[in-house]
Design a protein that fits this description.
- The model has no long low-confidence stretch (mean pLDDT 84).
- It contains 5 helices and no strands.
- Helix content is 62%, strand content 0%.
- Its main location: cytoplasm.
- This is Centrosomal protein 20.
- It is found in: Cytoplasm, Cytoskeleton, Cilium basal body; Cytoplasm, Cytoskeleton, Microtubule organizing center, Centrosome, Centriolar satellite; Cytoplasm, Cytoskeleton, Microtubule organizing center, Centrosome, Centriole; Cytoplasmic granule.
Amino acid sequence: MATVTELKAVLKDTLEKKGVLGNLRARIRAEVFNALDDDGEPRPSLSHENLLINELIREYLEFNKYKYTTSVLIAESGQPVVPLDRQFLIRELNAFEESKDNTI
């Protein structure tokens, strides 16, 4: 029969392999940040260039399913909660979109 220590180790290993522990850690970090964030302190204004850069970072984070990291980026940077229109980004960056898979 397995000991409590062995069961804990197997449970931890299983949760790590499934990515559950990583998600929990990320969620806890995001919640701690939100709790510590001072809403009374005004953020500096977001320049046009930083707005575009942050939006590209957000797209990368969302593509890789880093949703808690995305929420921290939005909260810290003052980036609008609603993502910028993709066509707007393409025009502003003078980029082109591959029609077959909607990647820039």
